[in-house]
Amino acid sequence: MFRRTILGVIATAAVMGAAGSAAAQVSVNIGINVPAPPQLVVVPASPVMYAPAVEANYFFYAGQYYVFTNGGWFVAPRHNGPWVVVAPEFIPRPILAVPVRYYHAPPPEWRHWRREGPPQWAPAWGRRWEEGRDHREAVRDERREDRHEGREERGGRDDRGGRDDRGRGGHRGG
Length: 174
Known about the structure:
Elements: H1 2-23, E1 41-42, E2 49-50, E3 57-61, E4 64-69, E5 72-76, E6 84-86, H2 93-96, H3 121-125, H4 128-153
Antiparallel strand pairs: 1-2, 2-3, 3-4, 4-5, 5-6
């Protein structure tokens, strides 16, 4: 009986813990209501798209929607959210490189900046975001090199035991 009570308490705690962790990912209401997917237009010479009809700094890149408002970045998997706050160092470089002219509601302090160039992020956020981004890119490059070296050590075979696709052979029909 005592053992059954203890197991019940543990099971209840586990369920409540799972519910608590799910609630930890809170979306944010950023005051932008986009009931239908907006028309997106490509920013010239960029992989980023923007929504000229939306009354916000609203962008689309790599399957995610990004909004810059009140000095911060928000990201969502769909056109209308749920929106989640994103630290500056985690915003993709192509988004940060979008020229000021494609921001529908640029902050007042941007009015003296070149409209054809990207916003001047470093003065606003300091060097921390650039340093964090450079560190993550270095780690990513190192991992890529490690995978490449590992493949060469296996004699050009991929992880599944077959030949890689870099022209060193391949499966032979038979």
